[in-house]
């Protein structure tokens, strides 16, 4: 499949009528059918989310599932709202690019305009297999919050920090990880860190601040959560180490929904199968700016942040994070020899689709390279998501405030890597 499990393809919640058509498939080919022509597109690009009991509001796996939504599917793919994809792929290729080709869009349009026929059962491809409730496959290990968190019906819930034990008896390498919400309706985001075993047992106590007495496990990661985000599956041979006895410390940002709710979330991991001699370690971090002040009414306020890379690494993936005033995001690699490369350009950032963009060809960053993030914000009345165009906006935890976080993922370079072309 072309789409990896970190890509999110959720969406069409209402039937849309009267959408203009794009170019049709060749008339000589006849009307496309669901079984032969449309199902392969959906299976490759959509059903990782559009399946029973998962992120999307409806399944698109069977003909009976998809037929009532045919016009909505057409409308969304013609508008390129589905599958969601924010990066400009003309700048660089991404291995999890879920955007449909013109040919695929034309096929769906012709199918709908032709009456959305089912076709022959024999033409239907094999339905992809998914682990129930997970996008990374069946986890080998699951770590769950010790106690449920009670979310009130209304009001503002302060950031809450919970600690979850892994009970690992030895250092453990994992090739995939995923956060699974207990109740996704009340989760705004989760930022998780892995803690070293320093003799302090995890407890069910909920704290309002990080525990600064605990040591973060260097290079370890377990995965967080933003709306409509799935898990992370690393490339063959790439893995992350969780140290023996590690705990997970998670910053939980809950939001109220007008009724009481209970959340008891989990993390699932898949154990790495690659031999230690062939294993490459995944890492990463973030570039951030906490000091900005976005002017009232400014439609394109720019904020920059950068970080110097202090060892040879490959830049593998990026995920920009802003709130509802976020407009665009760009990542630039500046090499020690003065060259620059744009690694990611997201011209139309969407808070509801915070994707992690995985480079088809990771960029080698020799020690001394600078990774710069350039984000813009629309604080004008033209931004229909803007809660207050008259406000000066700075860094803050809540959605009506703003953030500037340029997350990125890396893979260690082979010992003999010396140039950006190798």
Strand content: 25-35%
Global mean pLDDT: 88
Number of helices: 4
Low-confidence stretches: 1-28, 416-422
Distance between the termini: 27 Å
Number of DSSP-assigned strands: 20
Describe the largest sheet: 9 strands, mixed
Q: What is the helix content?
A: under 10%
Strand-and-helix sequence, N→C?
A: HHHHEEEEEEEEEEEEEEEEEEEE
Shape: globular
Q: In terms of structural class, how would the helical and strand content be classed? A: mainly beta
Radius of gyration: 22 Å
Walk me through this protein's architecture.
There is one protein chain. The chain is mainly β. The chain has 4 helices and 20 strands. Helix 1 crosses helix 4 (102-113) and helix 3 packs antiparallel against helix 4. The chain starts with 33 loop residues before the first helix and ends in a 10-residue tail after the last strand.
Key structural traits:
globular; four-stranded antiparallel sheet; disordered C terminus; 30% strand; mainly beta
SSE layout and pairing:
Elements: H1 34-45, H2 63-66, H3 70-78, H4 102-113, E1 141-144, E2 149-151, E3 160-165, E4 172-180, E5 187-195, E6 232-233, E7 238-242, E8 247-254, E9 261-263, E10 266-271, E11 280-288, E12 293-294, E13 301-308, E14 313-321, E15 326-334, E16 340-346, E17 357-365, E18 370-377, E19 393-394, E20 405-412
Parallel strand pairs: 7-11
Antiparallel strand pairs: 1-10, 2-9, 3-8, 4-6, 4-7, 4-10, 5-8, 11-20, 12-19, 13-18, 14-17, 14-20, 15-16, 15-18
């Amino acid at each position: 499949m072309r789409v990896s499990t970190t890509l999110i393809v959720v969406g069409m919640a209402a039937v849309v009528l009267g959408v203009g058509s794009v170019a049709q498939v060749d008339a000589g080919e006849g009307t496309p059918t669901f079984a032969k022509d449309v199902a392969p597109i959906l299976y490759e690009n959509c059903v990782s989310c559009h399946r029973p009991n998962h992120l999307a509001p409806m399944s698109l796996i069977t003909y009976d599932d998809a037929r009532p939504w045919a016009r909505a599917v057409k409308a969304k793919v013609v508008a390129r709202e589905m599958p969601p994809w924010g990066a400009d792929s003309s700048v660089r290729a991404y291995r999890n690019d879920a955007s449909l080709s013109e040919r695929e869009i034309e096929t769906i349009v012709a199918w709908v305009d032709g009456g959305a026929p089912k076709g022959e059962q024999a033409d239907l491809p094999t339905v992809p297999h998914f682990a129930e409730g997970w996008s990374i496959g069946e986890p080998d290990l699951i770590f769950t919050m010790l106690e449920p968190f009670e979310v009130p019906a209304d009001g503002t819930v302060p950031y809450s920090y919970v600690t979850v034990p892994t009970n690992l008896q030895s250092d453990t390498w994992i090739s995939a990880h995923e956060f699974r919400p207990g109740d996704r309706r009340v989760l705004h985001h989760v930022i998780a860190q892995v803690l070293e075993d320093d003799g302090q047992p995890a407890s069910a106590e909920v704290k309002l601040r990080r525990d600064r007495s605990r040591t973060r496990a260097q290079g370890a990661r377990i995965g967080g959560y933003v709306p409509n985000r799935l898990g992370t599956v690393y490339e063959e041979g790439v893995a992350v180490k969780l140290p023996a006895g590690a705990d997970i410390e998670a910053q939980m940002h809950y939001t109220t929904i007008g009724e009481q709710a209970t959340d008891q979330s989990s993390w699932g991991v898949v154990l790495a199968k690659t031999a230690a001699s062939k294993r490459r370690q995944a890492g990463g971090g973030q570039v951030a700016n906490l000091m900005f002040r976005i002017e009232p009414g400014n439609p394109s306020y720019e904020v920059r942040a950068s970080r110097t890379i202090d060892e040879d690494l490959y830049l593998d993936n990026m995920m920009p994070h802003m709130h509802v005033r976020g407009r665009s995001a760009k990542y630039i690699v500046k090499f020690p020899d003065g060259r620059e490369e744009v690694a990611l350009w997201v011209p139309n950032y969407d808070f509801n689709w915070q994707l992690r963009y995985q480079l088809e060809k990771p960029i080698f960053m020799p020690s001394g390279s600078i990774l710069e993030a350039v984000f813009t914000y629309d604080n004008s009345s033209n931004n229909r998501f803007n809660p207050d165009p008259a406000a000066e906006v700075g860094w803050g935890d809540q959605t009506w405030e703003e953030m500037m976080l340029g997350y990125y993922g890396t893979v260690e370079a082979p010992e003999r890597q010396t140039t950006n072309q190798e």
